[in-house]
Group III truncated hemoglobin
Amino acid sequence: MTTTDILGREEIVRLVDRFYEKVREDETLGFIFDKVAAIDWPSHLPKMYAFWQTVLFRDGGFRGDPIGKHARLVPLTAMGREQFDCWLALFEETVDELFTGENAAHIKRCAADMANVIHAKINAVPDERFDPMKITAEQRARYAAYRSAAP
Ligand code: HEM
Protein backbone atom coordinates (compact mmCIF):
# COMPACT_ATOMS: atom_id res chain seq x y z
CA MET A 1 0.00 0.00 0.00
CA THR A 2 1.21 3.48 -0.84
CA THR A 3 1.70 6.17 1.78
CA THR A 4 2.66 9.06 -0.51
CA ASP A 5 0.40 12.00 -1.25
CA ILE A 6 0.58 14.19 -4.36
CA LEU A 7 2.96 16.89 -3.21
CA GLY A 8 3.98 18.70 -6.38
CA ARG A 9 5.03 18.49 -9.99
CA GLU A 10 6.95 15.23 -9.62
CA GLU A 11 3.90 13.29 -8.43
CA ILE A 12 1.64 14.94 -11.02
CA VAL A 13 3.99 13.76 -13.78
CA ARG A 14 3.90 10.18 -12.43
CA LEU A 15 0.12 10.25 -12.17
CA VAL A 16 -0.48 11.69 -15.64
CA ASP A 17 2.05 9.38 -17.35
CA ARG A 18 0.54 6.28 -15.76
CA PHE A 19 -3.03 7.43 -16.39
CA TYR A 20 -2.50 7.92 -20.13
CA GLU A 21 -0.66 4.60 -20.39
CA LYS A 22 -3.87 2.99 -19.13
CA VAL A 23 -6.06 5.19 -21.35
CA ARG A 24 -4.13 4.15 -24.47
CA GLU A 25 -4.62 0.48 -23.63
CA ASP A 26 -8.32 0.93 -22.91
CA GLU A 27 -10.84 -0.38 -25.43
CA THR A 28 -13.40 2.40 -24.89
CA LEU A 29 -10.97 5.33 -24.82
CA GLY A 30 -7.65 4.47 -26.43
CA PHE A 31 -8.69 4.92 -30.05
CA ILE A 32 -10.28 8.31 -29.32
CA PHE A 33 -6.85 9.68 -28.41
CA ASP A 34 -4.75 7.71 -30.90
CA LYS A 35 -7.05 7.45 -33.93
CA VAL A 36 -9.92 9.97 -33.71
CA ALA A 37 -7.98 12.94 -32.34
CA ALA A 38 -4.56 11.47 -33.27
CA ILE A 39 -3.02 13.60 -30.58
CA ASP A 40 0.65 14.38 -30.32
CA TRP A 41 1.62 12.81 -26.97
CA PRO A 42 4.87 14.76 -26.48
CA SER A 43 2.81 17.97 -26.45
CA HIS A 44 -0.36 16.59 -24.81
CA LEU A 45 1.36 15.19 -21.72
CA PRO A 46 3.11 18.44 -20.65
CA LYS A 47 -0.19 20.25 -21.17
CA MET A 48 -1.85 17.80 -18.79
CA TYR A 49 0.94 18.19 -16.21
CA ALA A 50 0.31 21.94 -16.33
CA PHE A 51 -3.45 21.44 -16.12
CA TRP A 52 -3.38 19.30 -12.98
CA GLN A 53 -0.67 21.40 -11.38
CA THR A 54 -2.89 24.43 -11.92
CA VAL A 55 -5.96 22.65 -10.52
CA LEU A 56 -4.19 21.33 -7.45
CA PHE A 57 -1.53 23.95 -6.66
CA ARG A 58 -2.59 26.97 -8.74
CA ASP A 59 0.87 27.28 -10.27
CA GLY A 60 0.95 25.19 -13.42
CA GLY A 61 0.27 28.05 -15.80
CA PHE A 62 -2.30 26.03 -17.76
CA ARG A 63 -4.12 27.91 -20.48
CA GLY A 64 -6.43 26.15 -22.82
CA ASP A 65 -9.94 25.42 -23.89
CA PRO A 66 -11.02 22.07 -22.43
CA ILE A 67 -14.70 22.50 -23.30
CA GLY A 68 -13.98 23.48 -26.91
CA LYS A 69 -11.40 20.72 -27.37
CA HIS A 70 -13.81 18.02 -26.15
CA ALA A 71 -16.81 19.52 -27.98
CA ARG A 72 -14.92 19.05 -31.25
CA LEU A 73 -14.87 15.29 -30.62
CA VAL A 74 -18.67 14.99 -30.30
CA PRO A 75 -19.45 14.75 -34.03
CA LEU A 76 -16.54 12.32 -34.51
CA THR A 77 -17.07 9.69 -31.80
CA ALA A 78 -19.22 8.71 -28.80
CA MET A 79 -18.56 11.13 -25.93
CA GLY A 80 -21.39 10.13 -23.59
CA ARG A 81 -21.76 9.11 -19.96
CA GLU A 82 -20.21 5.72 -20.68
CA GLN A 83 -16.98 7.27 -21.96
CA PHE A 84 -16.78 9.78 -19.10
CA ASP A 85 -17.48 7.08 -16.48
CA CYS A 86 -14.75 4.97 -17.98
CA TRP A 87 -12.31 7.92 -18.02
CA LEU A 88 -13.11 8.66 -14.38
CA ALA A 89 -12.82 5.04 -13.24
CA LEU A 90 -9.34 4.82 -14.81
CA PHE A 91 -8.31 8.15 -13.29
CA GLU A 92 -9.46 7.13 -9.78
CA GLU A 93 -7.85 3.72 -10.13
CA THR A 94 -4.52 5.35 -11.08
CA VAL A 95 -4.64 7.83 -8.19
CA ASP A 96 -5.40 5.00 -5.73
CA GLU A 97 -2.63 2.85 -7.15
CA LEU A 98 0.02 5.52 -6.61
CA PHE A 99 -1.10 7.95 -3.90
CA THR A 100 -3.01 8.41 -0.71
CA GLY A 101 -3.88 11.52 1.31
CA GLU A 102 -5.74 14.80 1.14
CA ASN A 103 -4.51 15.88 -2.28
CA ALA A 104 -5.15 12.44 -3.70
CA ALA A 105 -8.75 12.64 -2.46
CA HIS A 106 -9.07 16.22 -3.72
CA ILE A 107 -7.81 15.51 -7.24
CA LYS A 108 -10.36 12.68 -7.55
CA ARG A 109 -13.19 15.03 -6.53
CA CYS A 110 -11.97 17.67 -9.01
CA ALA A 111 -11.81 15.08 -11.79
CA ALA A 112 -15.34 13.88 -11.04
CA ASP A 113 -16.71 17.45 -11.02
CA MET A 114 -14.96 18.34 -14.24
CA ALA A 115 -16.08 15.14 -15.94
CA ASN A 116 -19.66 16.11 -15.06
CA VAL A 117 -19.25 19.65 -16.32
CA ILE A 118 -17.48 18.72 -19.56
CA HIS A 119 -19.98 15.93 -20.26
CA ALA A 120 -22.96 18.22 -19.60
CA LYS A 121 -21.61 21.15 -21.64
CA ILE A 122 -20.54 19.27 -24.74
CA ASN A 123 -23.76 17.25 -24.85
CA ALA A 124 -25.96 20.21 -23.91
CA VAL A 125 -27.36 18.31 -20.94
CA PRO A 126 -29.61 20.75 -19.08
CA ASP A 127 -28.36 21.75 -15.64
CA GLU A 128 -31.21 22.32 -13.24
CA ARG A 129 -29.27 24.97 -11.36
CA PHE A 130 -29.65 27.20 -14.42
CA ASP A 131 -33.20 26.27 -15.36
CA PRO A 132 -35.17 29.57 -15.19
CA MET A 133 -38.27 27.65 -14.09
CA LYS A 134 -36.46 26.36 -11.02
CA ILE A 135 -34.76 29.54 -9.85
CA THR A 136 -35.94 30.60 -6.41
CA ALA A 137 -37.13 34.13 -5.64
CA GLU A 138 -33.98 34.65 -3.61
CA GLN A 139 -31.73 33.60 -6.51
CA ARG A 140 -33.68 35.86 -8.86
CA ALA A 141 -33.09 38.85 -6.57
CA ARG A 142 -29.39 38.01 -6.30
CA TYR A 143 -28.92 37.73 -10.09
CA ALA A 144 -30.80 41.02 -10.58
CA ALA A 145 -28.40 42.65 -8.11
CA TYR A 146 -25.41 41.42 -10.15
CA ARG A 147 -26.92 42.86 -13.30
CA SER A 148 -27.56 46.25 -11.78
CA ALA A 149 -24.03 46.29 -10.28
CA ALA A 150 -22.43 45.60 -13.67
CA PRO A 151 -20.50 48.56 -15.10
C1 HEM B 1 -14.62 10.70 -22.38
C2 HEM B 1 -13.62 11.24 -21.69
C3 HEM B 1 -12.50 12.02 -22.32
C4 HEM B 1 -11.91 11.88 -23.54
C5 HEM B 1 -12.19 10.81 -24.61
C6 HEM B 1 -10.94 12.95 -23.68
C7 HEM B 1 -10.15 13.15 -24.78
C8 HEM B 1 -9.32 14.24 -24.97
C9 HEM B 1 -8.58 14.52 -26.18
C10 HEM B 1 -8.59 13.66 -27.45
C11 HEM B 1 -7.91 15.68 -25.98
C12 HEM B 1 -7.00 16.42 -26.98
C13 HEM B 1 -7.82 17.38 -27.78
C14 HEM B 1 -7.01 18.23 -28.73
O1 HEM B 1 -5.87 18.60 -28.41
O2 HEM B 1 -7.53 18.56 -29.79
C15 HEM B 1 -8.21 16.12 -24.65
C16 HEM B 1 -7.70 17.26 -24.08
C17 HEM B 1 -7.87 17.61 -22.76
N1 HEM B 1 -8.61 16.92 -21.81
FE1 HEM B 1 -9.77 15.31 -22.18
N2 HEM B 1 -10.94 13.70 -22.53
C18 HEM B 1 -11.87 13.17 -21.68
C19 HEM B 1 -12.18 13.62 -20.41
C20 HEM B 1 -11.53 14.64 -19.76
C21 HEM B 1 -11.81 15.07 -18.40
C22 HEM B 1 -12.89 14.50 -17.49
C23 HEM B 1 -10.93 16.09 -18.13
C24 HEM B 1 -10.76 16.92 -16.87
C25 HEM B 1 -10.90 16.40 -15.66
C26 HEM B 1 -10.12 16.30 -19.32
C27 HEM B 1 -9.15 17.26 -19.45
C28 HEM B 1 -8.54 17.61 -20.63
C29 HEM B 1 -7.71 18.80 -20.80
C30 HEM B 1 -7.37 19.83 -19.73
C31 HEM B 1 -7.29 18.81 -22.15
C32 HEM B 1 -6.41 19.86 -22.85
C33 HEM B 1 -7.35 20.93 -23.40
C34 HEM B 1 -6.66 22.04 -24.14
O3 HEM B 1 -5.71 21.78 -24.87
O4 HEM B 1 -7.11 23.18 -23.98
N3 HEM B 1 -10.51 15.40 -20.28
N4 HEM B 1 -9.06 15.23 -24.05
Notes: The domain at 9-149 is CATH 1.10.490.10 (Globin-like). The pocket of protoporphyrin IX containing FE is lined by residues 29, 32-33, 37, 39, 47, 51, 64-66, 69-70, 79, 83-84, 87, 111, 114-115, 118 (CB under 6 Å). The chain has one domain: 9-149.
